[in-house]
Queue: 2 jobs
Job 1
Amino acid sequence: MKRLTYISQATPELSMSVVQHIGEISARNNQQCGITGVLLFLDGVFFQILEGETQQIEQLYEKILSDERHTNIICLKTEYPVTERMFPDWAMKMIDFNQYDDIVIRPVKSLLHTLSESHQIIEKYTQPAIAKIITQGINPLTVQPRLVEKVIMFSDIVAFSTFTEILPVKEVVELVNHYCTTCTRIISAQGGEVIKFIGDCVMASFDATQTDAALHAAIEILQQFKQMRQHAPPNHPLSLLYRTDLTSSNSVKK
Ligand SMILES: Cc1cc2nc3c(=O)[nH]c(=O)nc-3n(C[C@H](O)[C@H](O)[C@H](O)COP(=O)(O)O)c2cc1C
């Protein structure tokens, strides 16, 4: 047997009657395929534990993942093999936490909110490959290292140290944010993955077979920033960069 725990956010317009309906349908369907569990609902957050035969759980989770009544679905944990059910008597016990406000329930409410928020933060700031492992409910610390062949790409801002000396701190931060966001968008669109940011440096990887994609990403990044330099105000240090083509020198005229 398998046990799967996930958290998700109801779509904003989801009414309480729809939530109740999900609970009823779930209890009916689950009874037919031997699935048990619990579904908690609180301030737009779903928290569900499903347990049953592996194939049944995987089929149901596929359906749940494509259900448009909720988003940001994050698998918190998968347990396999499981020999004993935690909720043997509940085909799907739906608990609407909004109805309760006693002192014992409050920490649980707080916990659910924190879980939902922290996983959104993890998704935003963690390397996609690691985030994917986490969202599958696997603890990344238990994943064994393996040897893989990759194309590694490094990209950073020419004369960044000079910019940090000339520009006010606020503008340096804006420049780095804009640079990292643009690189990430282009690298992801080409199928690559940003591994980390090191100051003004972006380190990314592509599959070993994706050399062309990596080169396309690099060229597009250069083109984007060439345009940015060309459109910078006349006295801005960016416009003083005399790198006018993709291959020229990397110094700044002061
Ligand atoms: C938060 C949430 C939890 C759900 N849990 C279950 C569940 O435990 N069992 C179930 O059959 N459907 C559940 N559903 C509904 C399924 O996504 C799907 O709509 C339902 O199984 C009907 O599918 P069918 O039309 O293929 O029968 C859930 C939906 C949501 C949004």
Job 2
Amino acid sequence: MSKDFDIVVAGGGVAGAVTAALLARQGRRVALVDRKRPRAPEADAEFDPRVVAISPGARNVLSAAGAWQHVPEERVGPYARMAVQADGGHVEFAASQHGLEQLGWIVEIPTLQAAAWQSLASQTGVVDIMAPAGVESFEPRTNRLGVELDNGDHIRTRLLIAADGARSRLREQAGIEVDQWHYNQHALVTHVTTERPNSGIAWQRFTEHGPLALLPLADGRSSIVWSQPTDRAQALREMDEADFLEELNAHQDSPFGQATACIHRYTLPLVRRQARQLVAGRLALLGDAARTVHPLAGQGLNLGLMDAAALAEVLEAWRPEDDPADALARYERWRLSAGTLIAGGIHAINEITTGNPLGRRAAALGFGAASALWPLRQLFVERACGLDSDSPRLARTTP
Ligand SMILES: Cc1cc2nc3c(=O)[nH]c(=O)nc-3n(C[C@H](O)[C@H](O)[C@H](O)COP(=O)(O)OP(=O)(O)OC[C@H]3O[C@@H](n4cnc5c(N)ncnc54)[C@H](O)[C@@H]3O)c2cc1C
């Protein structure tokens, strides 16, 4: 089989599937290639431990792609308040003080991914879904790239988008170098039941071992993300439930009271990665293929969705027969600087606060200043919510 496309997206995680949907909505001939087809969790299934906080700007992008409309409301945990503590200092944010309905929503990644794929299915004829199939390799041809799939198919495309995740094969094939920082930390994730239900507060504390978050699930439980040194995280994963809950409760004094039960515990390694370039010829990187960040600010996928919207914006006027170099150069400048700024800020907060009482004290003082300085709070909320002037137009447009 040989087929011609305007754009091929390699990787149908949330970032890649949303990119394919946005570009198809511009009338492009788009193919989406992934090794697996996602399956939406059953309506009564336990919540998946892999959840993400979605910002208002990112939700606008998901809506523009037609994906958010397929996310079942009963699996979404909205939060209108955010509370952050360190060493006695604390800062709180309320959506209503910033003219917003919510500060964010906690959603399972498999639910989001299935919703994004459902939006593609309703665009039949425009997005060609090739799954299960992996991109094996690609090579430049005149005004195009030839793409070889691992099922033996060959396709051709004007643009190739690498949304194939943190260990991107396409990034490596393009010879793009990556800067990496191993935090020697793992994130311990689980869902906990607490004495009182979480009524919609994203609560976070910088503990001496690393940042601990309790994020609201739709059923009143909280999803835990506790980043800490690898050996400690693994020990907490292995211990009895009662011992784990005791240790957790010794480090949290959230408004929801003590944690009384938890589901299975998982640990995930934390690595910051930054690709040195986001574009190589007709290839552009996006989502985790472009960078990964520490989860303490819940920004990884939000950045990936901003990439998707930014790419759609710079390609608006591009015609497939034209050279995409100028549009892609704009994308690269825009998303490299935005991503590096946010990732750098998150990195610094983790380094300052983990295992360093003075750093946590400084953070506490910073929270006091942030509480008092209204313009600073507003700027912070706009940026964290993906609604600031540097965010793509689709993110700033409420559907
Ligand atoms: C503990 C933790 C907590 C987090 N919390 C948050 C949060 O609160 N908010 C937030 O925004 N982010 C958060 N993140 C980050 C977020 O999970 C990721 O940024 C996001 O899931 C990455 O999505 P993606 O679509 O870029 O990549 P992926 O989800 O990795 O998707 C890549 C896709 O590419 C496919 N693929 C791979 N190779 C090929 C190939 N050769 N050909 C075809 N297909 C291929 C794979 O099958 C996969 O479907 C968190 C991360 C961690 C570890």
